[in-house]
Write a structure and sequence with these properties.
elongated, 3 helical TM bundles of succinate and fumarate reductases, transport, ubiquinone binding, membrane, mainly alpha, metal-binding
């Protein structure tokens, strides 16, 4: 099943595309608890001679990502927006491009703590995304994914505490990296 037929399925059945995308391509079925309203409401009906898929694509391209996520998400998911978190993750990733060299060139406790915090946050978000993507409740049940996400949080807290402790009691992260590079 290609992406065009998946879009047709989503448009026809009105199920959440995030759920449909996570299902295997061989057994695509809508698992939404409540059926959603059809994406082709009265104002979004295709014009004469325009296919349903073309109408969906044209209207989707005219909307911002926030409007699309609000339109396609369920009422429970609307209360929490991931757009801000996604933006923060990107800003931290870009800030690391400046923080890492600055902490290595200018030995400073504030930069050491900033480096530790930004590295742990960056790695935490990456590991959490891996756990959420690959340890799904549909495969492992409801308990194991929650345990693994909790394990990622514990690992991140331990790493941050260890790096802060190292910065406080020893030479600092930037100086330690420079000393290791001299070996």
């Amino acid at each position: 099943m290609n992406s065009l037929s998946l879009m047709r399925f989503v448009a026809k059945n009105g199920c959440n595309p995030l759920i449909a995308r996570q299902l295997s391509l061989h057994s695509v079925r809508c698992m939404a608890a409540k059926p959603m309203a059809s994406p082709l409401s009265v104002q979004n009906r295709p014009k004469s001679g325009e296919s349903t898929t073309t109408a969906l694509i044209a209207r989707s391209l005219q909307q911002s990502p926030q409007q699309l996520s609000t339109r396609w998400s369920s009422s429970a998911a609307q209360s929490h927006s991931h757009a801000k978190l996604w933006s923060i993750e990107r800003y931290v990733s870009m800030a690391l491009l400046g923080v890492i060299p600055a902490a290595l060139v200018v030995p400073n406790p504030a930069l050491d703590y900033l480096l530790a915090l930004s590295l742990v946050a960056h790695i935490h978000w990456g590991l959490e995304a891996i756990v959420v993507d690959y340890i799904r409740p549909s495969i492992f049940g409801a308990f194991i994914p929650k345990v693994m996400v909790a394990y990622v949080y514990m690992l991140s807290i331990a790493a941050l505490a260890g790096l802060f402790y190292f910065n406080y009691t020893d030479v600092g992260l930037g100086v330690a990296i420079r000393m290791a590079a001299k070996m």
